[in-house]
Amino acid sequence: MIQAKRAVVRYGALLEERGLVFGSGGNLSVRAEGGLWALKPSGRPCGALREQDVTVLDMEGRVLEGLKPSSEWRMHLGVLRARSDVGAVFHTHSRFAVTMGCLKWEVPPIHYYMAAFGDQIIPVVPYRPFGSQELADLVAETLREPLKGAILANHGAVVAGSSPQEAMDLAVNLEFLCEVYWRVRCVGNPATLSEEEFRRALADFGAYSPGSSGGL
To answer: Any idea which residues carry the catalytic annotation?
Structure first.
């Protein structure tokens, strides 16, 4: 469990450093051993977390250690329950992902980085109140294997990685893709990858270990 707590602290600071979360918004969770998981506590900036503050929960959503859990604990739990291959869930409020969410624009295959997310489209999850079970259910339903990321309408984004490092890479790449798509749409219609081109990119990603997408 100590490693999961440390990962929440470390990657929380990185999310803030990269401008993917602001203030006390955004949150992240890391799966631990024994059916437990660590989560950013409520009301704390991601960049100012301490190990002793990190919330520890079981797979029933019961708090075992730490402070009051983030309001989005249901969303994290839903993904971790539905996806045994997921070791970390990051929820960001990054500027361009929020922009896409407010426009309700899904991201098409504009760049080969899309292959890191396992599908040709990064979809938009319909708006539901933050922290609600309705939102948690929709996110879990949307992030079915192999999809690893989605935009939340009028809210932000969520990514699911096999490890905290992969989740971090996905969060960074999702913001990159959202920014590129927005900029392209400002001047014209994007030229997207064909089905064959995307499938080739997807196959090529298999040659890299999880979390390495940022270096491709």
So the answer is: 72
Q: Which residue in this structure is represented by tokens 């437990």?
A: 36
Q: How distant is the alpha carbon of residue 21 from its chain centre?
A: 12
From residue 195, alpha-carbon distances to 108, 180, 204, 206, 208 in Å are 11, 20, 14, 17, 21
Give, in order, the Cα–Cα distances in Å from 113 to each of 40, 59, 105. Answer: 28, 32, 18
The residue written with tokens 């939102």 in the block is: 135
The pLDDT tens digits of the residues spanning 107-129 come to: 999 999 999 999 999 999 999 99
Alpha helix locations (H) across 18-162?
A: 73-82, 95-103, 133-142
What distances in angstroms separate CA 92 from CA 12, 110, 195, one per listed residue? 10, 21, 29
Closest listed residue to residue 26, CA positions, set 179, 171, 132: 171
Q: What is the pTM of this model?
A: 0.94
Closest C-alpha to 87, from 165, 19, 158 = 165
What does the DSSP 8-state code read for residue 107? Answer: B
Residue 205: pLDDT band (50, 70, 90) is: confident
